[in-house]
User: What shape does this take?
Amino acid sequence: LDENQIETFITHWYDAVESAHWITKADADRKRDELIEAVKRPDLVELAKNPLLLTLMATLHTNRARLPDDRADLYNEVVELLLLRWNEASGADKGLLDALQIPTLKLSDLREIMEQLAYDAHAAHVGKAGVADIPENVLVTGLRPLLANSADKAETALNYIENRAGLLLGQGKRGCNRQYTFPHRTFQEYLVACHLANRPDF
Assistant: This one.
């Protein structure tokens, strides 16, 4: 999105929020102006060009006083929101954890795997621009230990990842393998940093 499209999106977002009576017109006008200014921050301007990430920032901003000033806090909140999107019920579809039916599985377990996958993909992508691709077989290998080593449950998880906007985005097939990627390189980098920070030898 360009600067005008970003501003139009934010304006329409807060028009819709106010029309749904989630907040008052005065609050919608104030928040609209705040978010238009916030997305001009050097650390946010590139993210705001991505429609998914702009939607997530608008969702966060609607439900709190302001976006976090600390970039790491903002990334953490958006990562948590992206994980939750996989786990939301949608019509007749269950959330991911309900569909997998593994009582001990938590979203935090999935996040830990995403951090490991980000680290491995990033290490293999050093010196290259953009986000790294994660082949389907690599993703399945990472997920299966969480999923009772079940190929069926791994396929269920892949379908959720492929069909719902979340922390990984399906990119379709390239060659024989489906490919997945993070919604923005900075999310890949943030998850790599989380993985490193959690290592006892870091």
Observations:
- The chain has a mean pLDDT of 88.
